[in-house]
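From: lab user (bench 3)
To: helpdesk
Subject: output format question, protein + adenosine monophosphate

Hello, I'm new to running complex predictions and I'm not sure whether the block I got back is the full result or only part of it. Here's what I submitted:
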Amino acid sequence: MRIVVALHEMQRLARRWRRQGVRVAFVPTMGALHTGHLSLVQEARRRVKSSGRVVVSVFVNPTQFAPHEDLAAYPRNLARDRALCRTSGVDVLFVPEDTAMYPQAPVPPSSTCVVEEALTRSMEGSARPTHFRGVTTVLAKLFNLVLPDLAIFGAKDWQQAAVVRRMVRDLNFPLQIVVAPTVRESDGLAMSSRNQRLAPDERPQATVLWRSIQWARGRVQAARRAVPAAQLQKGVAKLVASEPAARLDYVAFFDPDTLEPTRAVHRTSHMALAVFVGKVRLIDNAPLGVDAP
Ligand code: AMP
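Helpdesk reply: Thanks, we reran it on our side. This is the complete output you should expect:
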C-alpha cells in the first residue's frame, strides 16, 4: 500500500492510471476507520476487481464543521487507519494536509466553493447550515485529485449521498456514485467514528436512534393507511426523551430520492433523525417499508 500526502503526487498517479485505462474506486473518509468504512472498501474492490485501484482518503475536513462543533474532538488515529487499510487491500491511502487543501485558511478557506441548493435545505442542512457547502467543496477537490471512476458512500449519511449524487450530475463529474448499506453494531447502533466518544453510561442510550427507527417501522408497516408524520414525530420525541442523556435534534420523514418531507408516512417513505447523546451528535436513517439496515 502506498501512502500519498502531496496533492500533486496523488493527481499525477491518478492521471497515470487514467492513461493506462486502470479503473479507480474511491472511498473518502474522515478516518478513525471502523467496519462501516471497511465495508465501503470491500464494495470498491468488488467493483474494480484486482486489476483496478482502490483509494481511501483520510481527511478531517475543517470546513464542514461549524465553529461550535466537534472538529477538535473528532477522533483521529492515523496509525490504526493505516494498518486497517493495509490489511483491507487498499492500494493508496491519501492523507492530504489541511494547509495543502486550504492554503488560505483560516479565512477564507477558499474563495471558490460548490453549493447544492435544493437537497441541502432540510435535515442536516438546516441543523448545520454551513455543513454541506464544506462537504461538496471538499469532495469536488478530492474528485479532481483522485480522478476516480466511482466513489463509494455509506447509506448511513443518506442526505449526503443524495447531495453528492446531485452535485456529480449537475456538474458532470465523470464518475459514478455508489451507495452501500449502513453497517450496525449487534444492538443496532450505526457504526460511527463518533461512537468512541460516548461515555460508558451513554453507549446503551445511543441505541435509541435505532429503537426509534424500529418503532416507526412497526407503526408504518402495521397501518393500513398512511400514518401522519406528526404522530410519528411525537412518538419518537417521547422515546428519545426517555433516555436521560439523549436530546432529539430532529426527526424527519421524507421521500428517499427527492428528500421532500412527507406529511403522510407510508411504506415507501424514509426516516432520518439526529440525536445528541451527551455531547455527541449521532445521526441515523432507514427505509420504513422494509427491514433493511
Ligand atoms: P466519515 O468518515 O464518517 O465521513 O464517513 C466516510 C464514509 O463512510 C461516508 O460515506 C459514510 O456514509 C460512510 N460510513 C460511515 N459510517 C458508516 C456505517 N456505519 N455503515 C456504512 N457506511 C458508513
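A quick orientation on your result: The chain has two domains: 2-180, 193-286. Let us know if anything else is unclear.
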